[in-house]
Specification:
By secondary structure, the chain is an alpha+beta fold. It contains 4 helices and 6 strands; from the N terminus they run αβββαββααβ. The protein has a 3-stranded antiparallel β-sheet with strand order 1-2-3, with no helix packed on it. Strands 4-5-6 form a 3-stranded mixed β-sheet, with helices on one face. A hairpin with a 7-residue loop joins strand 4 and strand 5 (100-111).
Length: 154
């Protein structure tokens, strides 16, 4: 049974996620959410990292979020694409906290006869309506720039 203070913090209509993190060694942490697969985060020196840093993980999460949206939207529209790739380039604040200030995502969609309008629409829907990670970062002040190109199958 929930206490009244818990239900005031987490209204019943809100979707909740439970996560767990453990310190492994050095600056490495293993984490999982809702009992899913564990991810190793490594906040140590770049040369010896065995996993993404927390900031890299935030960027990769935004990329995976929008990629899954774009793939789902293109499939629903029966766009016959053969692959999707996203390249990211970021800018961060110079002083702590060194937050992302700008994220440029460049989408590469491959296939034959892909309509420009379908790709543009899928990216816009993801960016403005569906990608929770990107929208959360945008609400935190991160500027997003999205570009794309349509290429033949490769």
């Amino acid at each position: 049974m929930e206490s009244s203070s818990t239900s005031a913090i987490f209204p019943r209509e809100v979707v909740r996620t439970k996560a767990h993190l453990e310190h492994e060694d050095d600056m490495r942490f293993r984490a999982s959410a809702d009992g899913g697969a564990a991810i190793l985060f490594d906040a140590g020196e770049a040369a010896s990292r065995r996993g993404p840093s927390p900031m890299q993980a935030a960027l990769l999460s935004a990329m995976a979020c929008t990629a899954s949206d774009v793939v789902e939207i293109l499939r629903k529209e029966r766009v016959a694409f053969t692959s999707l790739e996203i390249e990211a380039d970021t800018e961060r604040a110079k002083e702590p906290p060194r937050v992302f200030t700008k994220i440029h995502l460049h989408y590469r969609i491959r296939g034959n006869g892909i309509r420009e309008s379908a790709v543009t629409r899928a990216i816009e829907l993801s960016s403005e309506k569906y990608c929770s990670v990107g929208i959360m970062l945008r609400r935190g002040g991160v500027e997003f720039v999205n570009t794309h190109e349509i290429l033949p199958p490769g």
